[in-house]
């Protein structure tokens, strides 16, 4: 990955790309924690265009740019933009791109929209989630979190649990993990929520080991990390959601029965699938995971801007 690159898919990243970003993220973390004021992106502008709701991704990108010394312009809610008058997101992006931002971060509910945005815009485009398809920067911060927690990514066994069909974080994380040696992925879900065929095909091509399980009980003794995801209610029919709701829940009570509890991650937001009483466990690292997003996105923006 180089200066000026678009970031559309986790498949763009090689192992060396990921390791380089982790090194940059660690250096930026050290400098910020030492109280240093960073001005690397002074005079640069990040534009955030979220056509779908977001908290952590939008805010961490905005904080990341400000922490690098740059500025942020945000599209704002739909009701105060010309989107409320029926303007297409493509025309919105064409207009904004004409103002010459240095980077554009886009989220949209349409799979493949980030790729379309990259074709429209001269500024580098970063995919902050395109429907059920991908979320590459989430995957980068997830792998960074695993590395910080375990000191390695090679040899990691991870259980990806929940909505593996519609959850975009799962596909991107699987792709990033496939760059590392001796990784095993356990897909834990009802059969109806197993990963999409295109995701499994890529893992097969990259010779990444994976297995299916329908409950955590089957694999908990073998996983270093349990990555829990919510049901993507907005991407399924009400009937499908009601049928699958409650098919899995991770709680303090459910974890207590295991002799060994793995690290617990979640891309957030959580609903009922991960109960708040889990927060007290030392293995619960999902809020640290969210914090790591700041440093990884700083490292990514620094690389794209070439500063």
What does this structure look like?
The chain is α/β, with parallel strands linked by helices. The chain has 2 domains: 10-134 and 293-305, Aspartate/ornithine carbamoyltransferase (Rossmann fold), CATH 3.40.50; 136-289, Rossmann fold (3-Layer(aba) Sandwich), CATH 3.40.50. Helices cover 37% and strands 14% of the residues. It contains 10 helices and 9 strands. The chain has a 5-stranded parallel sheet with strand order 7-6-5-8-9, covered by helices on one side. A 4-stranded parallel sheet has the order 2-1-3-4, with helices on both faces. β1 (45-50), α2 (56-67) and β2 form a beta-alpha-beta unit. α2 (56-67) packs across α10 (286-305) and α5 (136-150) packs across α10 (286-305). The protein is globular. The mean pLDDT is 93.
Portion of residues within helices: 25-40%
Q: What separation lies between the terminal Cα atoms? A: 14 Å
**Largest sheet descriptor:** 5 strands, parallel
Assign the CATH topology of the largest domain: Rossmann fold
- How many domains make up the 3D coordinates? 2
Tell me the series of helices and strands, N- to C-terminal: HEHEHEHEHEHEHEEHHEH
Helix vs. strand class: alpha/beta
Shape: globular
Rg (C-alpha, Å): 19 Å
Largest sheet, spatial ordering of strands: 7-6-5-8-9
Strand content: 5-15%
CATH architecture of the largest domain: 3-Layer(aba) Sandwich
The CATH class designation of the largest domain is Alpha Beta
Superfamily (CATH H level) name of the largest domain: Aspartate/ornithine carbamoyltransferase
Question: What is the average of the pLDDT values?
Answer: 93
GO molecular function: amino acid binding; aspartate carbamoyltransferase activity
GO biological process, one term: amino acid metabolic process
Catalytic activity: carbamoyl phosphate + L-aspartate = N-carbamoyl-L-aspartate + phosphate + H(+)
EC number: 2.1.3.2
């Amino acid at each position: 990955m180089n200066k000026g690159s678009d970031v559309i898919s986790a498949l763009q990243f090689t192992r060396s790309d990921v390791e380089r970003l982790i090194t940059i993220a660690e250096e930026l973390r050290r400098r910020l924690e030492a109280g240093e004021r960073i001005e690397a992106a002074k005079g640069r502008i990040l534009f955030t265009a979220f056509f779908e709701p977001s908290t952590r991704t939008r805010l961490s990108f905005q904080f990341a740019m400000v922490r690098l010394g740059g500025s942020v312009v945000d599209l704002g809610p739909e009701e105060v933009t010309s989107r409320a008058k029926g303007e297409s997101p493509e025309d919105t992006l064409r207009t904004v791109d004409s103002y010459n931002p240095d980077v554009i971060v886009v989220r949209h509910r349409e799979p493949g929209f980030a790729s379309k945005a990259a074709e429209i815009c001269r500024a580098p485009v970063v995919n902050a989630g395109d429907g059920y398809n991908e979320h590459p920067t989430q995957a980068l911060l997830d792998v960074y979190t695993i590395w910080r927690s375990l000191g390695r990514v090679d040899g990691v066994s991870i259980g990806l649990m929940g909505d593996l069909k519609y959850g975009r974080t799962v596909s991107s994380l699987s792709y990033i993990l496939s760059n590392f040696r001796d990784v095993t992925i356990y897909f834990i879900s009802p059969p109806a929520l197993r990963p999409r065929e295109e995701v499994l095909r890529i893992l097969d091509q990259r010779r990444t080991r994976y297995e299916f399980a329908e409950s955590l009980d089957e694999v908990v003794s073998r996983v270093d990390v349990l990555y829990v995801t919510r049901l993507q209610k907005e991407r399924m029919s009400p009937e499908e959601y009601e049928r699958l709701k409650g098919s899995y829940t991770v709680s303090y009570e459910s974890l207590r029965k295991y002799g060994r509890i793995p690290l617990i991650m979640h891309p957030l937001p959580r609903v009922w699938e991960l109960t708040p009483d889990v927060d007290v466990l030392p293995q619960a690292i999902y809020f640290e995971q969210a914090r790591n997003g700041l440093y990884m996105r700083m490292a990514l923006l620094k690389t794209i801007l070439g500063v």
